[in-house]
Amino acid sequence: MKKGFLLSIVMLLTASLFLAACGSGEDSGSGDKPEFMNMLTGGTSGTYYPLGGELAQIISDETGIDTTAQSSNASADNMAALADGSADLAFVQTDVASNAIEGINSFEGNAIDNVQAIASLYPETVQIVTKADSGITSVEDLKGKKVSVGAPGSGTYVNAEQILEVHGMTMDDIDAQNLDFGESTGGIQDGNIDAAFITSGTPTGAVEGLSATTDIAIVPVAEDKIDELIAKYPYYAKDVIAEGTYGLGSDVTTVAVLAMLAVSDELSEDVVYDITKAIFENVDKISHAKGAFITKESALDGLGIDLHPGAKKYFDEEGISK
């Protein structure tokens, strides 16, 4: 009797553990939802960081996944971090993402094959910033000058390289400085550098800060050079920095690429679906000026890399296709 009773208890406990395991398996099968995610952005004085903070909060609130926005060296480093698993989500320029997947430019011999797109977000304007009295009025005038071009391999660096290229120049024709946005504008203000390439949504915080104390100019890119650049690198588009931005006295013609949100393909379809839905169903909660550009209708523009199945599922439901 006693042995039979003990045996019954053991069997009941075993059955309970089995059922609990089955229940746990059903939960994990709903997308292997992580507790935490980290989103890499860019430097604290650019656009990625403050906008990333808002998106991370929306994702946290809507999905229940604690998502943190972290500053970084931006596009190229962010792609590498997604590839090696040290980041879950990241802001990346569309051109840099395309280069990484193709294994060209700064990713020569190091192609990345495990990163996919969630959506493009807004135009990132290539701004060549200088003091209004610097005497630099064209890209050609940069020759021989101290010019910040961002970190080697960064999106800004590649943009600078390609814009110089269509003007018949290389990095050897300038005194290239590898500074972040804050260091660049500080260097212009202090007179330590003459100009800086800054690829970021306008208005950019670092440039606004500089313009508050210093009269600045944005060097235009000539129409024929824009055409040449787009013909060679189709991910560029013509852009205009409007009069009044940074106190500018007139519109300035330049070029832009797109900012996108990229993701590790390790995240499940369900999780990425929830992330995508969270962002695009809550754009009205974004206070940053670039929130106005984040729309379902433009989300698939200029991606250049494959869409994650979770994001595709969301946009398919919304009737939006690439």
UniProtKB/TrEMBL annotation:
Signal peptide: 1-20
Protein origin, superkingdom: Bacteria
Coiled coil regions, renumbered to chain: none
Sequence ranges assigned to domain Solute-binding protein family 3/N-terminal in this UniProt record: 39-251
Keyword Coiled coil: no
UniProt key word Cell wall biogenesis/degradation: no
Keywords, sorted A to Z: Lipoprotein, Palmitate, Signal
InterPro entries in the cross-refs: Solute-binding_3/MltF_N, TRAP_TAXI
Protein name: TAXI family TRAP transporter solute-binding subunit
Organism: Bacillus carboniphilus
